[in-house]
Amino acid sequence: MKPALLGSMSAHSSVLAEFGGHFDRGEKVYLFASWPTLEAALQHIVDQRKKDRVLTSL
After folding, report:
1. Positive or negative CA dihedral for 6, 56, 47, 18?
2. Within 13 A of 23's CA, how many CA atoms are on the CB side?
3. What is the pLDDT of residues 20-52, one digit of tens each?
4. Is 38:32 a contact under the CB 8 Å cutoff?
5. Which superkingdom does the taxonomy of this entry point to (predicted)?
6. How far apart are CA 56 and CA 14, in angstroms?
């Protein structure tokens, strides 16, 4: 598998790091070992946003 990368997202940096993302300061992107790892991190962010929206609408 090819490595995955993602442009800088400082608001989610701790989540991306939790999932194994490494920030490359020179390229200003997050690097992941694989696409599935990146997809899991992004899915976690989306799920958390949905959960937060539900809680704020109560």
Report:
1. positive
2. 13
3. 999 888 888 889 999 999 999 999 988 988 898
4. yes
5. Bacteria
6. 22
